[in-house]
Amino acid sequence: MPTVALRDLVQYLDEYLRIAEVPDETNAVNGLQVENASGNVQRMIAAVDASLETILGAGKSGGGPALLLVHHGLFWDGSVPIAGRRYRRVKALFDSDTALYAAHIPLDVHPIVGNNSVLASQLGLQSQEPFDHYRGVSIGVQGLLAEPVSREELVDRVRNLLSTEVRLIPGGPARVHRVGVITGAAGGRIAAARDAGLDAYITGEGAHHTYFDAMEFGVNVIYAGHYATETVGVQALAAHLGDRFGIPWEFHRHPTGL
User: Fold this and answer.
1) pLDDT (average), residues 223-247
2) Which DSSP state fits 187?
3) What does the alpha-carbon distance between residue 111 and residue 81 come to, in Å, rounded to a whole number?
4) Residues 149 and 126 in one domain
5) Distance between CA atoms of 180 and 188, rounded to whole angstroms?
6) Range(s) of the domain holding residue 65
7) Do the bridges between strand 43-49 and strand 66-72 make them parallel or antiparallel, or are there none, so unpaired?
8) In this structure, are 73 and 169 located in the same domain?
9) Contact, 193 vs 180, CB < 8 A?
10) Total domains, the chain
């Protein structure tokens, strides 16, 4: 079985994802979060969240030392004692010789394996270009459908692609052509979607008041779930690493319904 030094994978990931350059929330702690004892990697597991269920699943999948690639890492609850669930998660990583690497905004915005770019491409958006910014970094992706479709048809396309429940706020035109994507919890960016001239805006979730934003700003908003919209980037990243380093990978699906 191919074996790659963890340090080589981490160095490549840090550079490829521009970990040191892309801004993020403090508790994202992008990059290597937990190293493994062997310092080697023979397999990779991609998942959205570093939950206990995910970590235990990575250990049970068998094989040699592993690298768990996640979008939401271990430290979102801040600097807390290694006790309770923090202890259980870290211990499970140690027990299975699994390293943990997290990439939040750096994965969202990546032009090739990023959540936004990958989802836009899977939806068939052409002539892609950025829209909206996060702390000075371009974050959203917009593009044109090959042919205008009804907003209901676009909803069906998203639902079938992500195998998830989808909610439409019908604030925009009945037929849509220009569509934008920001995955995750980006319901607060509807004004930016309006300013970009989008007919429809796809994201994961939003607050109650965003219904009125969509209706009054004239934008169709599609909420496809925070989890579901962010399953695409980690898989694209793992596939890229698998091709480059010759390491097998698998995706562990743990949907939240949110």
Assistant:
1) 98
2) G
3) 37
4) yes
5) 14
6) 4-104
7) parallel
8) no
9) yes
10) 2
Does 122 lie in the same domain as 73? no
What is the CB neighbour count within 10 angstroms for residue 49? 21
Cα 160–chain centre separation: 18
> Does any domain span residue 78?
yes
Of the pLDDT bands very low, low, confident and very high (cuts 50, 70, 90), residue 4 is: very high
Asked if residue 125 belongs to a domain, the reply is yes
What's the token pair of residue 128?
A: 């892609």
Residues 168 and 151: beta-carbon distance below 8 Å? yes
225 and 120 in one domain? yes
- Judge if 120 and 180 occupy the same domain: yes
Handedness of CA 142, 147, 151, 157 (dihedral sign): negative
Classify residue 170 by burial, with Cβ atoms within 10 Å: 0-12, 13-18, 19+: middle
Identify whether residues 204 and 128 lie together within a single domain: yes
pLDDT in tens, 28-62: 999 999 999 999 999 999 999 999 999 999 888 77
Does 172 lie in the same domain as 130? yes
Q: Are strands 175-181 and 137-150 parallel, antiparallel or unpaired?
A: antiparallel
Q: What HEC string does 223-258 produce? A: ECCHHHHCHHHHHHHHHHHHHHHCCCEEECCCCCCC
pLDDT on residue 61: 76
CATH number of the domain bearing residue 159: 3.40.1390.30
